[in-house]
Structure formats: structure tokens, C-alpha cells
Amino acid sequence: MNKVFVLVTCLLMSVTLVAQNISVTGRLVSAEDNKPLPYATIAVAEESDPGNSFRKLATNENGKFSTDLEKGKYILVFNFVGMDEVEETLDLTSVNGKYDLGDIIMTESSTELEEINVTAQRPLVKVELDKLTYSAKDDPEASTSSVLDLLRKVPLITVDGEDEIQLKGSSNFKIYVNGKPSNMVSSNPSQVLKSMPANSIKDIEVITDPGARYDAEGVGGIINIVTDKRVDDGYSGSVGGSANSFEGLGSNLYLATKYGKLGFTGNVGYDMFKQPKSETSSTTEEFTPYPLNTLSQTGATSTIGKVLFLNGSMSFEPDTINLFNLSVSRFGGNFKSNTNQQAVSGEARPYSYTSESNSVNNFGGMSFSADYQRSFRKKGELLTGSYRFERNPNDSEYDSKYDVEPGGVFYYPDGYQLKSVNKAGGNEHTFQVDYVNPLNGKHNVETGVKYIFRDNSSRAVHTYFDVEDNLWKPDIDRKNDLDHTQNIFSGYGGYSYRSGKIGMKIGLRAEQTQQNIHFMSAELDTVVGTNYFDLVPSATISYQIGMTQTIRGGYNMRISRPGIWYLNPYINDVDPNNISYGNPNLDSEQQHNFNINYGTFSQKVNLNATISYSFAKNAVTAYSFIVQDVEDGIEKSVTHNTYANIGRNHTIGTNLYLSWMPNEIIRTYINGGVNYTDIKSTQENSRLQNSGFSGRAFGGITFSFPRDFRFVTNGGFFLNQVLLQTNQSPFYFYSMSMQKSLINKKLDLSLNVQNLFSKYRDMSTTTKGEGFTQKSRFLSPARVFSLSVTYRFGDLKSSIKRVQRTITNEDVMQGESGTQQGAATIPAGS
Fold it and tell me: What average pLDDT does the chain have?
């Protein structure tokens, strides 16, 4: 009986205590559009002790919250990224049951919020009307990584073990920095982005549906790297250094300052790299319609080099109406390669020889841009004027010596030495005016005009060593020079609409192109002029399924003009059996792109999925063929590698990005996709075609332990790559790193190892053409240890402003890593 009495008493006391609690509810909304603010943080403290919060909670996906409090007086503090802090005082001493705060309005902040400890996490990826945005500043690994490292995690982007970048499985894209394209970055993206510290980056944007304001002849996708320009009056920055077991050294400096109306950001990076010997072997089998013959080649190549990158941007805001920006960039370097090779040919052409070649490739460029932006009384109404100059030299030279083995026969029986020097590059001037007018909260129009002038050229000096006269003499027969000019006039108009859950954007661009090509060779001297007009539409529509779910679809037609790396007729004949050169007669490539994208996020899970389809009827395609000739009574058979508008391809693909953070210790992600490609040659009577699946996957997991210690492991896998004539074998790579932060998270140390259990990376390719099959194998050092140190200084508070519209010349098609087919590339592991 006593036990029953005690139980009833406890139940009554519990009911009484519950009845005394008050349920406090409310909703956080934005002052600008009255939209809910999901996953905002709320701290609750007693009024008598406001500095000591006893409870923290987060709003749900609809911006709503609810919490039970006893009678008393409280202070509630609301925080949301990018919004001013809101504080509410509650007096619940005479309240019973429920208390509804209603809508709590938060306004956009002009300053960056101080760091706060919260459980809710801002999503790393968000979907917008025409792009995806990866929040680099919210990535915990950014403090010890390079921008290239971050790209591995961005949806739709993959970076393989050789640091080659792909967007949706393709190398045909452009890279911008702060909305401005740079040919010097596009020509050597891996090396440039290695020198940029990730902690200087705010966002990485993937523009999958370039609208009308982008050049009609642009590529199917754009990667825009937005640097972090947060700094109040004062300064902030970082300095870092690195070293690896390949004897590579690197250093970088990032600085941002702002004093009153004047702001500056700059970045300097310097790297020295050394690639140990890589081994190569290939077998070329010739058959009908050619005489049966087999050529076997083996060789080894080692490379050393250096690179310097400088970038500076200055802003001046005399008042709230006018804004001026100036930017200067310089990127330059070289890499030197030494190659030893042995060749043995049998059957129809029996000969053998050894060779030693030394080559130097100089790359780089400089750019200068000036922008002016005028704002009007209507929010969002802008008029922008811009000018940009860019120069991009791409010089190279080599010398080779060929020795005939005893009893062997070569094209030149007495042996042969040759040298070649190529001076190539171009200047580019661009003028542009843009106007944007948000008619009201739902409708927006934009228009603009643009003019581009390009002047590209290539000059080469070829010499050979005359054994009889013991002199170096000009080799007139190898002359192949080029002058190439372009004048592009364009205008565009666009309209966008956003209301509630629906958004749409349509545009139309018109371009007039005039170009002259002057090709000078030993056999001919010709000038070809072309003049053509294009109308290019684009459209995107999005629907917000919920506060955290968006679906988007889009179409755009893009035209890519071949750049100097594709047009340059300079013949790289370091290997006399396999020569490569550009094609000055290339036309622009037209491509149609369709895509559907779905994105959703929560406090723990971020998911983004894309299905895409694209086709082109005259794609610029790498092309290999054999030319047979007789010189000095000796039959020659040489494989030519160049480019031609012969690709008719269709590609359907998927891409999936998934990140999961089950708790504050673990963050994991996976990023990859699968494509099916069907490509055929448009050449008359050609039977060249290829089809099949290609894919890529990259994933990783980060463990964040107490005392600012992190362990990170990443890995990737690439399936067969499908090209018109070539299939590449699958390969994988992986890395592990330990990271430690010291001195209040200002000093970061990182120890990294790549491919710990694989000393070499083994890759192979098979190329098939009319009358031949070529199989190649590449064995390159893969295991590398590296150590990096980064120190940050200063405080980051407010933003240095930059104009919202600027010049974006994404129309020029670049070669993979800025090199021609068959030429050397910057090595990985540097």
C-alpha cells in the first residue's frame, strides 16, 4: 500500500512539473523575401546570467523551432550565416501552456559572423538556378590543402592520379578566377591550382548552364574559383611551404588588406618539381593496306621544372554608387625533360636505333583587367564596363641525337642530329559593357555587348647537323609557321523569373566572327579568311520541392573555337616515328547540352545527382594516321598525331555527389559518375568508331579528433576512357594524411602519403586506325611522401567588393593541360 502511495505521489508531482513548463515556439524568416531560415542556431540563457547559455537548438527545414522552458525570464539569441544576430527577451513568469514568438525577422549582415560552436552544419554544396556551389571555406581540410585538392570533392568534377581535371568526364571546359577566365590558368590548370592555398578560397562554382551573357562559342561547363576577400580595415593572410620525397619544394603567400575605401588581395606561389624516371613501351603493328611490319619502342623519361604564380586585385569604392577594380596576373615556368629511347623495326622495314632527346617547354602568360561598376537606386540595377588584355606565350625547344646500332639501318644511315625552337602565343584585347535591371522582385532582364580581338602566331627555326660539313644547317623543308587573327562582335539579351518555388532563365546571343589564317610552309603560302554569324539560345528552369530540395533542368548550345594549342602547325618530331602537330584549318565545334539536376541537404546528409546528354556533329577530335614515304632510298612509315573536325559523338552520363556527417567527428563523401559515349568519324569512307562506358569515382573520409587533430584518407578509381581511336586502361590512386592545428588554429601541419603500397602506376592505351594498331604502356613513380606547413595571420571580418559583371572569354578551346597531343606534360607528384 505504501509503495502504491509513493508511485501515485511521484506521478502527480511529474504531471505538476510538466504542467508548469511553457512550450515556446516561433519561426525565423529573412527580411528580404520572408523565406524561412533552416538550421539557424538558437542559444537560451537566463536573464540573470546572459553570458551562460544552458541550451542550444536549431530550427528545422521550415525555419520553425520549439523548446520547453520553466516559468522565468530568458534571453534567446538567434544566429544564421550571413545574417545579423537577433536577441529576444522573454518573460514567462505569468505565462501558462504555450508562448508563440511568431515570425522572427533576420536581416542580411554586412559583416562576417564571429566563429560560434554549433551542431547544425552549413551544407557544403547548394544548387542554384544555373550552377552548383561548393563552400570551400566550410571544408575542414581547406586549411592544409591546395585548390586542386578541393576540386576532387566538387560535384561533377574529377581529378585523376595524374592531376588531370575533368568536368562531367570531359576535358573540354574553362576555369575562371573570380568570374574572369585566364588562358594561362586553363593551359596549365593543375600546376596553377597546386600553388593556390585552399584557405584563400571562398567558393568553387560549377556553371553547368552558361547563359546568354557567356560567349556563344563557349564550352559546355565552367569552373569558377571565388577567392575569399573578407577583411575589415587591417589585414589577413597566410604563408605556407611544402616538400616531398620527389625532391619537390613549394611555397605560397596569400594576403588581403582593406583600409577605408581601398582593398587589395594577392597570392604568390612558387614550386620546384622533379619527376623520377618514368618508363614507356609501345608496339605498333602495321597491316593491310600497308606491308606487314612491327615497330617496338622502349624508353625512359625524367623531368624537372619550376613555376611561379602571382595574382593581385585592387578595389576602390569612393561611394555607394561607384566601384573600381584592377587585377594583374603573372604565371610562368618551364619544365625540362630528358628521354632515352630504343627502337627496333622488323619485317618490311628492318632497322634499329637509340636516341637521346632534351626538351624545354616554357609556359605562362600575363593578364591585366580593369572594371567599373555603377549602381542605381533600384537594388540590383547595375551598369558595368570592362577591359582586359592577356598575353600567352607558349614556347618550346628540343635537340635530339639518333645513333644506329651495329648492323642496323635507320632513315639516316650515318646517324642524325636535329634541333628545333618554336616561339608561339598570342595577344588578346576584350571590351565589354553589361546592364542588369531587376524590374521587380520576380522579373529580371540583362543585356550587353562585347568585342574581342585576338592575334596568335607561331614561328619555328629548324636545323640539322651536316655530318660531312660538320655544321648545323637550316632545315627549310620543315618550315610550318602561322599567323591567326580573330575579330568577334557579340550582343546578348536575357530574362529571368523567380516566384515562390519556380525559377527560370532564358537568353539569346548573337555573334559575328571574322578571322584570317596565314599558313606558311615549305610547300605553300596561303591566306584563308572566314566570316560567319551565329544565334545561340539557352534555357534553364528550376523548382524548389522543399526548403532543402531543388530540381533543375537546362539546355544550352555552345561553340568552341580551337585555340593556339590546336591550331599551331609546329611539328614536334622528337620521336621521328610518332610526330604531333596542330591543324590551322580547324573549324569551331558546336555542341548541344541537356541536363537534369536534383539536390537536397540536411544537417547530416548532402546529395546531388545529375543526368546529362550532349551531342556534337563536328567535334574537334584527336586523330592518328600513318604516312608512308621513301627518302634517300629508304622507306619511311610515320604515325601522325593531330586534330580534325571529324567527331560525331553522343554522350549520356550521370554524376552523383553524396556527403554524410553522422557526428562532429566523421565526415565522409563520394563523388563520381558513369558515361556512355558513342563516337564516329565523319570522314568519307572512314570506318573509325568507338563506343563504351567510362566512369570515375572519388571518395574520402575525415576524422576530426580532439585537440585539433585530423586523419584524412582519399581514393579514386577511373574506368576505361573512350575516344575515337583510343581506349585507356582503368587505374586507381589513394592517399592518407595526418593534420594537426596549433597556436589557436593559426598553424597547420600536414603529413601526406600517396599510393603507399604502389611504387609505380601502371597504365596502358590502345589506339587503332586504318592499317595499324598501337599498344602503349606507361610505368610512372606513384609513391610520394609530402609535408606542408601553413600559418594564418590577421582577422577576417568584412568583404572587399568587386564588380558583379566582368569579362568572361570562355570561347577558346584549350588542349589538355595546354599541350599538343604527343607533347610532354607537367608531371604529377610535384
Answer: 80
pLDDT at 525: 85
Q: Return the pLDDT at 676.
A: 94
For residue 165, the tally of other CB atoms under 10 A from its CB is 20
How far apart (Å, rounded) are the C-alpha atoms in residues 521 and 476? 9
Residues 296 and 418 in one domain: yes
Chain-centre distance of CA 654, in angstroms?
18
For residue 683, give the DSSP letter.
Answer: S
Q: What is the pLDDT of residues 484-530, one digit of tens each?
A: 899 999 999 999 998 878 889 999 998 888 888 888 888 778 887 87
Domain extent for 62: 2-106
Here the cell at position 382 is 547595375
Task: Say whether 176 sits in a helix, a strand or coil.
Answer: strand
* pLDDT exceeds 50 at position 164: yes
Higher pLDDT, 361 or 170: 361
Grid cell in block for residue 245: 620525397
Q: Rounded CA gap, 346 and 58, in Å? A: 75
**Distance in angstroms (rounded) separating the CA atoms of residues 515 and 719:** 40
Partners of 267 in the beta sheet?
A: 254, 311
Mean pLDDT value across residues 792-820: 50
Number of domains in the chain: 2
Same domain, 135 and 96: no
Neighbours of 736 (CB within 10 A): 16
Is the torsion defined by CA of 655, 760, 338, 572 positive or negative? negative
439 and 491 in a single domain? The answer is yes
Which is more confident, 576 or 227? 576
Q: Are 329 and 187 in contact (CB under 8 A)?
A: no
- β pairing state of 812-813 and 549-562: parallel
How many Å apart are CA 326 and CA 316, to the nearest integer?
Answer: 9
d(CA 560, CA 210): 13
Instruction: Tell me how far CA of residue 392 lies from CA of 106, 107, 185, 423, 598, in angstroms.
Output: 48, 45, 10, 11, 39
Q: What is the DSSP letter of 826?
A: P
Quick one: cell of 71?
Answer: 516559468
- Flag the least confident range among 191-195, 305-309, 626-630: 191-195
Quick one: pLDDT at residue 631?
Answer: 65
Are 272 and 305 contained in the same domain? yes
Q: Is the pLDDT of residue 198 over 70?
A: yes
Is residue 635 within 8 Å of 628, Cβ to Cβ? yes
